[in-house]
Model the fold of this input.
Amino acid sequence: MFRQWMIKSILVLIIAALVVLGAIPLYKHRHFNLPIVAGPGVTKVVQLSNYCSGLKGTMADTRVYFLEGKEKGGKALILANNHANEPAGLLAAIIFIENAAVEKGTLIIIPEFNNSASRSTRPGDGYPLYFEIKTGWGKKKFRMGNRDAAPLDQWPDPDVYIHYPDKQLLSFIDTRNTNRTWPGRPDGPLMEKVTFAAMEIMRKEKVDIVLDMHGAETMFPVTNCIVAPEKSSKIATLTSLFVKAGEGFESHVEPSPSGFRGLSHREIGDYSEALPFLLEAPIPFLDQPTGPKTEKLLLDGKDSFLLSLARKKKLFVSYDENGWPMDKRVGQHCSVALEIIRQFSKKLPERGLKILDVPRYAQVVQNGVGHYFHNPARADKKNVYDN
Amino acid sequence: MLTSLSLLNGAGDGGESMNIIMIIYYVISAFLAAMLIWNFIREKKNFDDMILYLIVLIPLLLRVLRIK
Done:
């Protein structure tokens, strides 16, 4: 009897130790906050739940930054971390928040659009929980998230996700994917509330253009591009031509398929007046045939398996020993976003925007992303927001 | 568990059905965890089963504690 209880106690202790050791890093990751310093252009910061009360008090609620110019003009909305395992968009969004000076029009930025996903990780893929970017004042630490919201916040998944309102049958996992739940509804699952709140921003604030920043595998055909529906295609094409000619990088245009529902570039265009653009920068980290999913691979994009595949012409982007570093991806997002805004402003001057002090591709590649991040420890506390 | 349930969202805005299902799943998880613990305590001889009960318990425990 004593021996039996002794063994049971040892087993319980071993399992308890495993649970605690495994749980602490996950708990810390879920509750780690990313400080963002509101730059000179930020005029107000509100919660997404202001636009959909169902988000209040949940992990899906997130901050919305407004950068309002003195001169009236158009409005642009930037969404980043819609997929929280594609962080180049987040870094570009932070560059805008911490540096942009808006002279005309209004820029609205949601850096952690799928906040729940940014506090989760991908089971079984060995993702790093964090990554760090070198800055002039030290390293800035970021959560590495997942593509889909945490099941802790929206559970259980259905067998099949039935898209609202089109009733198209999508994969069960897409019920937690905020790039499949557009246009959303106020009384739907939590992720539909997130996209509904964003649609409410577009409707209430009369947003003209929406830029949804993503990353895509080098082996996926829809990568290194701007995905645009019919009504955005002219501006997208001009942007593609201008960045190619003026800044020397590719970002071709992909048409938004009308039969594939739930995506931002489709539903925002169909359910609001805004012109949507989805920006894809290559992210080798997400490709399947790579080595370990390390922080290094995430940041430098160098992988020998991808290099071998590139030599066999199996990739949809050019790829060499230099990989596809984060600075390049973030620089592309900054330049493409600025160029789309510029092209829109040329087309509709009365709804135009004038944004200063945001670096373009060449500057980000030369100086590094971290050069544009401000030290939250040195900043005025009232300007530092946890995200 | 109560703290966990208080984090659930959307009460009163039409999202109740989703929340009720979520609450039911948490209750099912807690029930299964309790059954596994009960079986572990009752198991007298088979150490393989004891280990099995504890291993199966891990994901349920992490979910009920809202960690993973």
About this structure: The mean pLDDT of chain B is 80. Residues 2-64 of chain B form one domain. Chain B touches chain A at residues 7, 9-10, 13-15, 18, 21-22, 25, 40-41, 44, 47, 50-51, 54-55, 57-58, 61-63, 65-68 (CB under 8 Å).
